[in-house]
Specification:
Layout: H1 10-15, E1 27-36, H2 43-51, E2 58-69, E3 72-82, H3 88-96, E4 99-100, E5 105-106, E6 108-118
Antiparallel strand pairs: 1-3, 1-6, 2-3, 4-5
């Protein structure tokens, strides 16, 4: 049996030189695939709803609509997060709960992270 040690003290983390895991002022760029709940979703309306989400520390970049196959499409979107100001889980939950008022259902069925880079 392998014994693992957990580091719980900030001073201990800095002493061991592990402070790189909790750097201040870091940003993340995420390329995200938003897959729709149904094939008849208006992608422009979905993208507008996502871009209207207001979070301190979140900015939305380039986007494109790509065909997956058999007429099914997805929205590919670049997001930049200020890691000190916002948590990805909050943004993810907000996107997943956006509703299409014309269909009275959620826009997204799933989110998939294509890439996540720290700046």
């Amino acid at each position: 049996m392998v014994e693992s040690k957990q580091v719980g003290d900030v001073d201990e983390i800095e002493r061991r030189g592990l402070s790189g895991f909790t750097q201040k002022g870091t940003k993340s760029t995420i390329v995200l695939d938003v897959k729709p709940k149904s094939a008849d979703i208006d992608f422009n309306l979905m993208e507008k709803a996502i871009r209207n989400l207001k979070f301190d520390g979140v900015s939305f970049g380039a986007s494109k609509i790509e065909e997956i196959g058999y007429g099914i499409k997805k929205l590919e979107l670049m997001i930049t997060l200020d890691d000190d100001k916002v948590d990805w889980a909050q943004v993810e939950r907000s996107i997943m709960h956006l509703k299409d008022e014309t269909n009275h259902s959620n826009f997204a069925s799933s989110l998939e992270i294509q890439s996540w880079n720290k700046l």
